[in-house]
Amino acid sequence: MSKLPKKHQFIDLSDYGRPIARIIANSLKSTSFTPVDVTIAFVISGLIGVYCIVSTYYWAAAFFLIFKSILDAADGELARIKETPSYTGRFLDSVSDIILNFIIFMTLWYVTEVSIWWTLLAFFGIQLQGTLYNYYYVILRNRFEGDTTSRIFEDSTPIALPGEKQKNVTILYFIYKALYGIFDEIIYALDKNAPKGKPFPNWLMSLVSTFGLGFQLLIISVLLVFNLKEFIIPFFIGYSILIFVFILIRKVFY
């Protein structure tokens, strides 16, 4: 985990692809490939995974969804290795994630008999899960001088960093707010005092990390491989209940 100092690192169950991501990033260090190129690559991998779901190639779908998760970590690793952090990459990554998530869940609706309304509820649930995980994680990163490209509250257009255009940052920030704003507002309303509380213990962060996109894609992949695609949407609806459990633990003890 590169985003936190070693002293404050926790077992991130959604970050299983980090070792391979570092290998990929290091292999691209001396090339012309940029972090944005890697982000585009994970979008392609995700779309191939979607095609494989529709085509009932579930093992292949699992491979490309997990590979997407690995590349999702590799773009940030490459940015750190090349020392080229950018808000363009940060927002493009997030926008790509939510659009791919929506496509994946619409695909699951298409290949199952689950109601569209349950599907949309599941999608809403996974986005709230991911938002809570990112909220707590970014609080730690900002508190302990980790990577700070992500801000606790994305409430204003950031100033472009060296090497990127302000126009691109502004456009991507607008899209980000349009897509993520409701989820950020809900999580903040549920736990607005989290930035002022005591540092989160490692065990709690490890539990919350199961809300990370990497872990979500792993669950989807496992259920696909076992031909249990009908259970994916109900699972994520039920799993969303833990949002309130984790927030309650945070409020009562930390």
From TrEMBL:
PROSITE patterns in alphabetical order: CDP_ALCOHOL_P_TRANSF (PS00379)
Keyword list, A-Z: Membrane, Transferase, Transmembrane, Transmembrane helix
Record keyword Heme present: no
This protein's record includes keyword Oxidoreductase: no
GO term, biological process aspect, one: phospholipid biosynthetic process
Any one cellular-component term (Gene Ontology): membrane
Residues passing through the membrane, by range: 38-71, 91-110, 116-136, 203-225, 231-249
GO MF annotation, one: phosphotransferase activity, for other substituted phosphate groups
InterPro entries hit by this protein: CDP-OH_P_trans (IPR000462), CDP-OH_PTrfase_TM_dom (IPR043130), CDP_ALCOHOL_P_TRANSF_CS (IPR048254)
UniProt family annotation: Belongs to the CDP-alcohol phosphatidyltransferase class-I family.
Name this protein carries in UniProt: CDP-alcohol phosphatidyltransferase family protein
